[in-house]
Design goal:
Layout (H helix, E strand, L loop, with lengths): L7 E4 L2 E4 L21 H30 L6 H11 L2 E2 H8 L3 H13 L3 E6 L2 E9 L1 H21 L5 H16 L6
Antiparallel strand pairs: 1-2, 3-5, 4-5
Helix pairs in contact: 1-5, 2-3, 3-4
Length: 182
């Protein structure tokens, strides 16, 4: 069981993350590990948990910043993806953002109603629709990027610039060894 998962609630502007009362990034990673496992397995397990907890911590930081402005953490990664990558199929959006396809479908309907995105037929496969960000959606991302990343920068304040660059280098090395599916 995974502890401290953020919970969501329906709010005036759609889905929002509720506060995680007892979350703190420096909490120890859980019960004692099985000492019969090889050291490399224990290290892999610990790294996995630390990366997941770090992701949660930074996600929570971004969510609080967005919610303070009445905006949705769920719309944020979708719109950022569309600004960065251009028109994208809905299934690919779900995969790339780690959100459930049905939830992405509802979210796209919501943000399409707000004129932040629009759907269009994929010229390479007329059976498929692509989602693209509108000028209003791009302006939304552009207006929220500075406060969100200022909050994330502050959350990482205990790390020097050199440590951050090293972490980026190591994470990129790990991703480069993947099969390209992420």
């Amino acid at each position: 069981m995974i502890d401290n998962w953020p919970t969501v609630r329906h709010g005036q502007n759609g889905l929002h993350m509720a506060e995680v009362e007892d979350f703190h990034p420096s909490r120890s990673p859980g019960p004692n590990a099985d000492s019969t496992l090889p050291g490399s397995v224990l290290l892999a397990e610990e790294l996995y948990r630390l990366i997941m907890r770090t992701k949660k911590y930074l996600w929570h930081t971004a969510a609080r910043t967005l919610e303070a402005r009445g905006e949705s953490i769920f719309a944020w990664p979708v719109l950022c993806l569309l600004v960065r990558n251009g028109p994208t199929a809905q299934r690919e959006i779900a995969y790339r953002t780690g959100q459930h396809p049905a939830g992405v479908s509802r979210l796209i309907e919501e943000i399409e109603g707000q004129k932040l995105v629009r759907r269009k037929v994929d010229p390479s496969d007329r059976r498929r629709q692509l989602v693209e960000v509108t000028a209003k959606g791009k302006a939304w991302v552009d207006s929220l990027t500075p406060p969100v990343f200022a909050a994330v920068d502050q959350a990482m304040g205990s790390m020097s610039e050199e440590e951050r660059r090293m972490m980026r280098k190591l994470l990129l090395k790990l991703l480069e060894s993947s099969d390209g599916s992420v």
